[in-house]
Recover the amino acids of this structure.
């Protein structure tokens, strides 16, 4: 059994694939008998605290994609907490200040490092000034490379991560690992009709409309303008199709402004950041899950939506691990352009209530090995590889 310390800049209640990944991985590892400690940052605390296996460090506002980052990566209290935990593995999910804290502690405590590539450093900003974008991206690339250079093993849920590593000027192998969800929590059968209608009312969604939902970071990489353009150009008010956007991020203000400009406020609804604990109810109250990201790497929300019985509309991308989960025309549709997206959206919106119930059952039961325990079992092999690589390097350094 291993002691695994997971370092992530964001965690619940922050809605993000990364925060969800950390929690699902933790549950899976603990189900397998391992001990897990999560180190994260929070703008709601003024001093480090540890509760239920989570260390929350004070955060400051930042221009990164999360909007904040850890204030002090050398905090003595956090160091003591982690040292007492005695980690065998430090698993870094974000190449931000918390990531640097993980690298520093791994060096002090002499333990191996695993780094998960969850996005591309070049897609984190969308500045009008090319020069400003260039400067920001330069520093993001340096952070990305620091994680790669100091990790024994690099992982991702998308084959394209290997390309991003090469684009950063590094020749490193990237191990493909699965994404998963807690299927017991995300189960539409546990949520009655009244609860769904209550959620719709709270979010301002019509009772009888077809609701497509997206949940995650609102960043440029998610390509959400694609969805807004479709609602403006190809879907009419009479189609009775609404879009629910859950989450927050650097593109929030821009997207809301775009909605107002395109006169879409009556059909596009921004829920903001919601507690992850109510996401099963939110997803179950919707009808379709949509994704417009072209180069996104981590797709935790796919698994959550499908566990809630939502068919998915996903951009064609054979590099994603989740792509293998989609059976075109069975539990969702793979689209190539706006025209196909609209055709599939309208096809699903025409389903009668009984057909929708059957589809929910089919979608949920199409998931195989998409659970936290299987995810943890796969990650154990990654951790073993990291420990072996670390021990070899230690032996070389000692000259044995």
């Amino acid at each position: 059994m291993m002691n695994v310390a997971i370092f992530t800049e964001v965690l619940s209640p922050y809605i993000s694939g990364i925060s969800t990944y950390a929690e699902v991985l933790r549950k899976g590892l603990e189900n397998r008998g391992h001990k897990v400690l999560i180190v994260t940052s929070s703008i709601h605390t003024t001093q480090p605290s540890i509760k239920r296996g989570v260390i929350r460090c004070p955060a400051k506002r930042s221009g990164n994609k999360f909007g904040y980052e850890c204030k002090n990566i050398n905090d003595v209290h956090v160091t003591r907490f982690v040292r007492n935990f005695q980690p065998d593995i430090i698993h870094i999910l974000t190449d931000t200040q918390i990531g640097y804290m993980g690298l520093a502690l791994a060096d002090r405590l002499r333990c191996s490092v695993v780094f998960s590539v969850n996005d591309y450093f070049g897609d984190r900003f969308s500045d009008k000034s090319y020069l400003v974008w260039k400067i920001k991206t330069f520093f993001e690339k340096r952070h990305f490379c620091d994680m790669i250079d100091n990790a024994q093993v690099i992982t991702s849920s998308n084959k394209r991560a290997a390309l991003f590593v090469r684009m950063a000027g590094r020749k490193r192998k990237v191990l493909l690992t699965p994404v998963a969800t807690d299927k017991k929590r995300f189960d539409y059968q546990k949520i009655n009709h009244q609860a769904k209608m209550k959620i719709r009312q709270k979010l301002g969604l019509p009772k009888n409309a077809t609701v497509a939902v997206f949940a995650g970071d609102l960043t440029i990489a998610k390509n959400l303008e694609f969805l807004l353009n479709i609602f403006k150009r190809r879907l009419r008010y009479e189609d009775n199709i609404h879009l629910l956007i859950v989450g927050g991020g650097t593109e929030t203000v821009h997207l809301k402004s775009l909605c107002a400009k395109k006169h879409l406020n009556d059909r596009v609804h921004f829920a903001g950041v919601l507690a992850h604990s109510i996401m099963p109810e939110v997803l179950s109250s919707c009808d379709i899950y949509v994704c417009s990201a072209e180069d996104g790497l981590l797709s935790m929300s796919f698994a959550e939506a499908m566990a809630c019985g939502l068919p998915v509309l996903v951009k064609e991308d054979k590099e994603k691990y989740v792509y293998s989960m989609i059976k075109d025309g069975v539990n969702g549709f793979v689209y190539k352009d706006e025209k196909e997206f609209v055709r599939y959206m309208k096809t699903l919106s025409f389903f009668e209530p009984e057909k929708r119930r059957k589809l929910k059952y089919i979608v949920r039961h199409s998931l195989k090995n998409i659970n936290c325990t299987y995810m943890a079992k796969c990650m154990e092999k990654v951790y073993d590889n990291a420990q072996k690589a670390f021990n070899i390097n230690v032996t070389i350094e000692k000259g044995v």
Remarks:
- Confidence is low (pLDDT under 50) at residues 396-400.
